[in-house]
Specification:
The chain has a single domain (21-167), classed as 2-Layer Sandwich (Nucleotidyltransferase, domain 5). The protein is 33% helix and 18% strand. The chain has six helices and five strands, in the order H-H-E-E-E-H-E-H-E-H-H. It has helices spanning 3-10, 21-27, 72-82, 102-110, 127-139, 149-165, and strands at residues 32-41, 47-55, 60-67, 91-94, 114-117. A five-stranded mixed β-sheet has the order 3-2-1-4-5, with helices on both faces. Strand 1 (32-41) and strand 2 form a beta hairpin. The protein is globular, with a radius of gyration of 21 Å.
């Protein structure tokens, strides 16, 4: 069939405008957090699971914790600890992981948070937290050997302090998640800090 025939037959049958995933993210960015687990192997080949809660508006890590064997109840408690008072976001983006069981879903519902579950095998639908995990691996964990749970917590605490205070983000106009307001230093003046 010729292109002109296809256009003529489908011109009157256009779908109504629908909001895309990107539009949803842009319209509700102050009200969105994303959660994700990632795995770290220790020196003794034991697996540790790190849980992250990332607020989308300033790419701020609200909460993190490490555990060798997570459960739905433990994960639900982590969400409660991430939003202790009336700080709960409107939307929580998560994947289809089995760890988000009934206990987790009930606790999130009681907090007044709407869950947005991404499609199967679609990490691009949770881009900020996936990018953060990649940065953690490339900039930090690929350069150290983790001994145990306490060691991983210490490493991540130090990295997140750097991430919030000094690491620049292109999407934040080359600023850190904690806004850094600095004046131009005098010519020849420099400052340094240890990381």
């Amino acid at each position: 069939m010729a292109d002109s025939n296809v256009r003529n037959r489908t011109a009157g049958h256009r779908k109504p405008f629908s909001r895309t995933w990107r539009a949803f993210l842009e319209n509700h960015v102050p009200d969105i957090v994303a959660i994700e687990f990632f795995v770290v192997a220790t020196m003794s080949l034991r697996l540790l699971y790190c849980f992250l809660v990332l607020r989308h508006d300033r790419r701020r890590i609200v909460h993190f914790n490490v555990i060798p064997c997570p459960t739905a109840r433990w994960t639900a408690q982590q969400v409660v600890e991430a939003f202790p008072f009336d700080e709960a976001p409107r939307f929580l983006i998560r994947d289809h992981d089995g760890i988000y069981g009934q206990d987790f879903r009930e606790r999130v519902k009681h907090l007044g948070i709407d869950e947005v579950v991404i499609a199967y095998r679609s990490p691009w639908q949770s881009p900020y937290v996936e990018r953060l995990i990649g940065s953690i691996r490339r900039e930090c964990l690929d350069h150290v050997i983790v001994f145990n749970e306490a060691h991983l917590l210490r490493i991540l605490t130090d990295y997140f302090a750097y991430y919030h205070q000094a690491r620049s983000h292109l999407s934040l106009e080359r600023n850190a998640p904690n806004r850094v307001t600095s004046s131009c230093p005098a010519v020849g003046a420099s400052s340094r800090f240890r990381r």
